[in-house]
Amino acid sequence: MGSAPAEFMSSTPPSAPLLIQDAPQRWNRILRKLGPGLIIAASIVGSGELIATTKVGAEAGFALLWLIILGCVIKVFVQVEFGRFALSEGKTTLDALNMLPGPRLRANWLVWHWLLMFSFSIAQLGGIVGGVGSSLALTLPLTGDFVEQVDQLPELQRQQTAYKEQHEAMVARLASERGMSPEDAADNVEVLATVQEALGPQPVAPYTWDDVYWSALVTLITATLLVNGRYGLIQSVATVLVAGFTVVTAISVFGLQSQEKWAISWDELSYGLGFHLPAAQGALATALATFGIIGVGASELVAYPYWCLEKGYARFTGPRENTEAWLARAKGWLRVMQWDAWCSMLIYTCATVAFYLLGAAILNREGLNPAGSQMIRTLERMYSENALFGGHGSRVFLVGAFAVLYSTFFVATAANSRMAADALRVFKFVPQVEEKRRWWVRFFCAAFPFVSLSIYVWSKSPVKLVLLSGLMQALLLPMLGVAALFFRYRRCDPRIRPGRLWDTFLWISVVAFFIVGGVGIEKSGLLDYVVTLVQSAGSSS
Questions:
Q1: Interhelix angle for 298-311 vs 462-486, to 10°?
Q2: What b-and-e string marks burial along 428-466, b requiring 16 or more CB atoms within 10 Å of the CB?
Q3: Alpha-carbon distance 474 to 196, whole Å?
């Protein structure tokens, strides 16, 4: 018999009548019990939508609209299977993953796989807090150095291009004089030293502090709120932050239709839904990395059952029993959870499509691509070019960018803290004691924001951090798909199993996970690295 871990129940015994509730039946009462999906939506509408999805639109135009929608919808079937298992068994995600067969070293191999992805997700939050700090540095500059750097970026890029051309020309000349091939000369230390001495250092953007100051302030506020906050605070903050900017973004897409230069035609939309591949080099790779983030990414799939448990779905259902009363409660709360998952899917799909269309309609046509420290300024063009906002488009975007990026930083940090505390228990580093779990959750709520800030201060490349995390999530997706099938066919109570149509879409979802994961491995060069290692081992033996 499954029972929820103590940390997600209460000090009251699980069988106490006050903890067990019948699920609401009317739709208006069901809506009052939603919440975990809204938190997940707040986490999703940020790094995936504002940064990565608009980047795909900027690179691929309208060609990959179908993939963006598919990425949002198809993952829900796996998400619900994770939630179904948590609801019926009362177990956390890491507990569930730890049940899969396979090698173990203190914990299951899949839990180790999750830990690797989790480490990169912290780096992703470095990119997110950097985006928040950048938007504030542009809106409310302190020293003005970040605004000055962004304004000077076109000239810096021109200087960097000229330097690169001079460098290549000088290497080619030295190669000819010394009878070397251009490839050998490009790797020759003496040649490179001569070129460096002649041309001097490559022009680089000066380090800025305004974005760091604002990121540090945001980090401090976040840590304070999360250390002292509980589930209700997280749900409320997440809902308010994501609602406003999503509505503004959807309105801005419709506003484009009043401007001939930016209007989106039906032909462009139908082309985007026609399963085409982009012609632009690198666009498909970006899209596949984005597939790991948009919609419910690997991080959100793992986090969702934690929020379901904190909301009380498993607690209201009660420990699994062979009774009609338990079955009725389980089916009722499963229905509520499915409403929660699908309603949140509609919210973040609308936001994702809106961001993608803005990127395709404005950035792609302008030849712009959000990257590096100019990311926020480039994304700002999607609003400053919109006549709907008059001359206030830039300010609307910067305020909204803060809201949507901060919602991801806030919610993802809260989820990561809970998963990290649970991981300590699963890896048997701490006992299963509620007081210990709460202490570690507060510790990670305080520590993770500053770890993310340190990563941003060190790298200063938010887009690369976000996309790297997306790649790692894409690599984990196939394994989570396998786990969902394991829960469905080996651990799911037969009385609450889904039907054949649901199973069909679940299998389609898992196949899509494997395709994205396989392409991610190929694009990352991991396969070539493994082949090289095998060949080296064979030759040495």
A1: 70
A2: eebeeeeeebeebbbebbbebbebbbebbbeebbbbebb
A3: 40
Q: What is the residue whose two structure tokens read 């871990």? A: 5
**Dist CA 445 CA 230 (whole Å):** 11
Q: Please compute the mean of the pLDDT values over residues 148-164 and round it to a whole number.
A: 80
Write the DSSP symbol of residue 213. H
Q: Which two tokens stand for residue 24?
A: 């609401």
pLDDT above 70 coverage of the chain, percent? 82
Q: How far is CA 3 from CA 87, 216, 253, in A?
A: 10, 41, 47
Chain centroid to Cα 183, Å, comes to 39
Cα–chain-centroid distance for residue 319?
33
Amino acid at 488: R
Cα separations (Å) of 494 from 84, 271, 432?
12, 43, 29
Q: With a cut of 70, say whether residue 238 has pLDDT above it.
A: yes
pLDDT confidence of residue 488: 93
466 alpha-carbon distance from chain centroid = 7
Question: What pLDDT is recorded for position 4?
Answer: 41
CB-based contacts of 25-28 (< 8 A; 24+ apart in sequence): 25/332
Other beta carbons within 10 angstroms of residue 210's beta carbon come to 22
Which is more confident, 38 or 204?
Answer: 38
Closest CA to 356 of 45, 40, 55, 46: 55
Residue 255 CB partners (closer than 8 Å, separation 6+): 386, 387, 388, 389
Each as own residue / partner, the long-range contacts of residues 220-227 (CB below 8 Å, 24 or more positions apart, any chain) are 220/449, 222/406, 222/409, 222/410, 222/413, 222/449, 223/445, 223/446, 223/449, 223/450, 225/410, 226/410, 226/413, 226/414, 226/417, 226/445, 226/446, 226/449, 227/442, 227/445, 227/446
Whole-structure pTM value: 0.80
**Residue pair 244/403 in contact by the 8 Å Cβ criterion:** yes
pLDDT surpassing 80 at residue 67: yes
The answer to whether the CB of 125 falls within 8 A of the CB of 412 is yes
Q: Return the minimum-mean-pLDDT range out of 63-72, 120-129, 142-151, 277-286.
A: 277-286
- The pLDDT of residue 7 is above 60: no
Sign of CA dihedral 301, 304, 305, 306: positive
Q: Show Cβ contacts of residue 480 under 8 Å, excluding neighbours closer than 6 positions.
A: 78, 82, 298, 301, 302, 513
